C-alpha cells in the first residue's frame, strides 16, 4: 500500500544524493593515457579490462558509509534483480520500441497525444527507518528515553499498555527503528519479541505492525497471506497494487532476503487466472511512471471500450496491459475521456466486466490512480461496514498509511464521503487498548 511524491526519495526521504565523483586520471606513478588509447580505469580495486570483478571496489575518500540494510541504493547504483538504475527508462511496453541510450523513442504513429497532463502525487509509503542517519525532533523524546519507557512499562508483573502505546503508536517508523536498536543494545532483547510476548489479540497485532520497519512488515504480510491454509487475497491487493517501481524492487529484495524465496513465485503458487496475471505484472515493477513514451488518450479510451463494453465478452488482458503500463497522469485523462464519451465512470465499467478478486484488484487500482487518499478511505470503510469488523484489514490500512500528511488527506476524504469523521468511526468499531492504539496512529489520541 506503500504505498511517492515526485522529487522525493522512496519512503518519504529526500531524493537520492548526487553520485560521488571519482578520479578518472592515471594512477600515481604511471604516465598519462596516450592519445588513441582508453583512459585508465578508476582506482579502487577494479580488475584489469576483460577480467571479472574481485568484489566491490574500495570506497573513495570522503564517500558516505554503506547504506543500512533495506535502505535504497545510492543514485546511480544498479537496481536489484536486474532492474534499471533509478532514473533510467523502463523496458519498452509491449508493441513499443526500446528507447535509444540518452534519447526518447519516437512516438507511435497515430493521433496527436496529450503528454503534459497534470500529475497527482502517489501516496507516500511509510519510511523504512534508517538508524544510522535519523535525528529525532528537537525537544522531543530521544530513542534512548523511549526504549527506557517501554522497558519500564513491560518489566515486572503486568504491562503498562498506555505507556507502550504512547511510544509505539505515536512515533514515526524511522524513530522506532532506532528505539528497537537501542533497546537491544541496552537490554539484550529483541523489542518485537518483547511486545509479542507482553500483548495479544487485536492490540498485540497492531503493536507488532507498528514496531516493524514498513518494508519488512509488507514482506511479512505477503508471506502470511500466501503461506498456510487459504490465501488472503485482499491483503495481497493492498500490499502489491499501486507501488512504484523502485519500491517494488526493494520489496522483492527484502522478501528474498527474509524468506529465501522469490516474491513472484510465492504469489504465483497461491493465486491463479487473471488475478495472478495482474499481480505478476505489478510485481515486475516496470510501469512507465513518468512518460518516457507518448501515449494517445483517445486511442487508449477506444481500446478499453472495445475490450469491454464494445464487444461480446471481455478482453481481460487488454485491460490489465493498459492499466498496469501507462503513467497515472495519462490514465486519469483516459478515465475522464471514457466517462465523457460513454457516460460511465470507469470503476463501474470494471465492476460490470469483471468479477471475483480480479474485479476487486482492478477497482482498487483504478481508485488508487484516481485518488490514493480516497482509495484508502473507502477500504477503511469496507473493513468496518456490516456486521463485525475486519480488524486485520483495518489495522493494516491504518498502520501502512499513517504518514501524517497522507493520513490527513485520508481523514479529509473520509469525512467528505461518509459525513462522519474517521476518528468517530474507528472509535465506534473498536475498544480498549486496541482503540487507543489506532486512534493514536491516525493522530487522534483518545481524550481522557
UniProtKB/TrEMBL annotation:
The keyword Transcription regulation does not apply. Pfam families: Annexin. Keywords: Annexin, Calcium, Calcium/phospholipid-binding, Repeat. GO terms for cellular component: cytoplasm; plasma membrane. One of its GO terms (molecular function) is calcium ion binding. Residues 15-28 have a biased composition (Low complexity). Residues 29-51 have a biased composition (Pro residues). Residues 15-59 are annotated as: Disordered. InterPro entries: Annexin, Annexin_repeat, Annexin_repeat_CS, Annexin_sf. The keyword Transferase does not apply. PROSITE patterns: ANNEXIN_1, ANNEXIN_2. Belongs to the annexin family. A pair of annexin repeats may form one binding site for calcium and phospholipid. This is Annexin. It comes from Linnemannia elongata AG-77.
Amino acid at each position: 500500500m506503500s504505498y511517492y511524491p515526485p522529487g522525493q526519495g522512496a519512503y518519504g526521504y529526500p531524493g537520492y544524493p548526487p553520485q560521488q565523483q571519482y578520479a578518472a586520471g592515471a594512477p600515481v606513478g604511471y604516465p598519462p593515457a596516450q592519445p588513441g588509447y582508453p583512459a585508465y580505469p578508476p582506482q579502487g580495486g577494479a580488475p584489469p579490462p576483460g577480467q571479472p570483478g574481485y568484489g566491490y571496489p574500495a570506497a573513495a575518500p570522503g564517500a558516505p558509509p554503506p547504506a543500512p540494510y533495506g535502505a535504497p541504493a545510492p543514485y546511480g547504483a544498479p537496481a536489484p534483480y536486474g532492474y534499471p538504475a533509478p532514473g533510467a527508462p523502463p523496458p519498452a511496453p509491449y508493441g513499443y520500441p526500446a528507447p535509444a541510450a540518452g534519447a526518447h523513442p519516437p512516438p507511435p504513429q497515430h493521433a496527436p497525444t496529450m503528454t503534459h497532463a497534470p500529475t497527482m502525487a502517489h501516496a507516500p509509503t511509510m519510511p523504512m527507518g534508517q538508524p544510522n542517519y535519523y535525528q529525532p525532533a528537537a525537544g522531543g523524546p530521544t530513542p534512548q528515553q523511549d526504549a527506557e519507557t517501554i522497558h519500564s512499562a513491560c518489566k515486572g508483573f503486568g504491562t503498562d499498555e498506555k505507556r507502550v502505546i504512547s511510544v509505539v503508536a505515536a512515533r514515526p517508523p524511522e524513530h522506532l527503528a532506532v528505539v528497537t536498536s537501542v533497546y537491544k543494545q541496552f537490554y539484550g532483547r529483541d523489542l518485537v519479541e518483547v511486545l509479542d510476548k507482553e500483548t495479544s489479540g487485536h492490540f498485540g497485532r497492531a503493536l507488532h505492525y507498528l514496531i516493524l520497519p514498513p518494508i519488512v512488515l509488507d514482506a511479512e504480510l505477503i508471506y502470511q497471506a500466501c503461506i498456510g491454509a487459504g490465501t488472503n487475497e485482499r491483503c495481497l491487493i493492498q500490499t502489491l497494487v499501486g507501488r512504484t517501481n523502485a519500491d517494488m524492487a526493494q520489496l522483492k529484495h527484502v522478501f528474498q532476503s527474509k524468506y529465501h524465496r522469490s516474491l513472484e513465485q510465492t504469489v504465483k503458487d497461491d493465486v491463479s487466472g487473471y488475478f495472478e496475471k495482474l499481480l505478476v505484472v505489478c510485481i515486475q515493477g516496470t510501469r512507465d511512471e513518468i512518460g518516457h513514451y507518448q501515449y494517445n488518450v483517445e486511442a487508449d479510451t477506444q481500446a478499453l471500450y472495445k475490450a469491454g463494453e464494445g464487444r461480446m465478452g471481455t478482453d481481460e488482458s487488454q485491460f490489465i496491459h493498459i492499466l498496469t503500463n501507462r503513467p497515472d497522469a495519462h490514465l486519469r485523462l483516459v478515465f475522464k475521456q471514457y466517462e465523457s464519451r460513454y457516460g460511465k465512470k470507469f470503476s463501474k465499467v470494471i465492476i460490470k466486466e469483471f468479477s471475483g478478486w480480479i474485479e476487486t484488484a482492478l477497482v482498487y487500482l483504478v481508485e488508487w490512480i484516481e485518488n490514493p487518499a480516497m482509495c484508502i478511505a473507502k477500504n477503511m470503510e469496507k473493513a468496518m461496514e456490516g456486521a463485525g469488523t475486519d480488524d486485520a484489514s483495518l489495522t493494516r490500512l491504518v498502520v501502512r498509511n499513517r504518514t501524517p500528511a497522507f493520513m490527513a488527506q485520508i481523514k479529509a476524504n473520509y469525512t467528505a464521503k461518509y459525513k462522519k469523521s474517521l476518528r468517530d468511526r474507528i472509535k465506534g468499531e473498536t475498544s480498549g487498548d486496541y482503540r487507543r492504539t489506532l486512534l493514536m496512529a491516525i493522530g487522534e489520541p483518545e481524550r481522557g
